[in-house]
Amino acid sequence: MKWLLTIPCWGDFYVETFQNFVLPSLRAAMAALPSADFRVIIHTNQPFDVGRLNVEFRPILGTGDYGDFGAAHREAIELAEDGERIAFLCADMPVSRECFLVSELHFAVGKQFVMCAAGRCRYEDAGTLTSGMSGRGLLDWSVKHPHHSTLDCYFGAGRMAVPWGLYFGDDNNVILRPFHLHPFASMKGPWLSFQGVTIDQDIIDHIPQDKVGVITNDQMALVELSPDWRVFALRRQPITAEQVAVWAVNKFSYANRWLFRHRVIIKGDGSYTGDVDVCNNILNEVEQVAA
Predict the structure, then answer these.
(1) Within 13 Å, how many C-alpha atoms sit on residue 156's CB side?
(2) C-alpha–C-alpha distance, residues 121 and 130, integer Å
(3) pLDDT tens digits for range 147-159
(4) Residue 5's beta-bridge partner residues?
């Protein structure tokens, strides 16, 4: 089996983050699938040392703006061979050691795409990460080191104006109800395309839902490392169901609402149900308007 890893990576902060925290996690994940043939495409304006990896450095398709991340992933799709698996990665996204192996398990049962939560965590705490962490270990780490923007996605307490999902829980449980998930891996296919600025914006709209494998447990995990200085727009008051419903009607497609039906267990055994009635009410309101 062949894998193509596509990684946009430029700017000193992202290059250092990739080298120090992401690359070790990728090496461990590759080692967990020794039968695979991995190659890597890194779009950058500053080629850097990656050790003994099969890497092709390609120029940024622009000036290094935000939209160039999507351009890099589009070019990688074009460069992928028929039948090749494509992993869409970010320079600030460590992975658990099972990520390629678990993706292969999903492909083996007919899935063509694998999506996974990538909880935003504090970059300042990344020194406590260890390479080769399991999905459970990386999720546990993410709960202990959330970025302030993640805390602002907690229902009833957070004030995030543009939440990627809603978090619910107590001392022993954390459940994520996602509007967005990271599009981690895909089989090469003619349906593989997106129109958004970045790949996670609308690619889910182009894939049949029965072909999408959604990770809802600790099979594998991703985290996104963000510095404390990265901020997002906040509401004046904590998130309410009514606010989310109004916002979702205008912002999200049927596919986003389909993702929101999934209960992603970040911590605990899934028996916590504090999210169920709230999210059902949100979905009912949105679908009545969208009908």
Answers:
(1) 8
(2) 15
(3) 999 999 999 999 9
(4) 40, 87
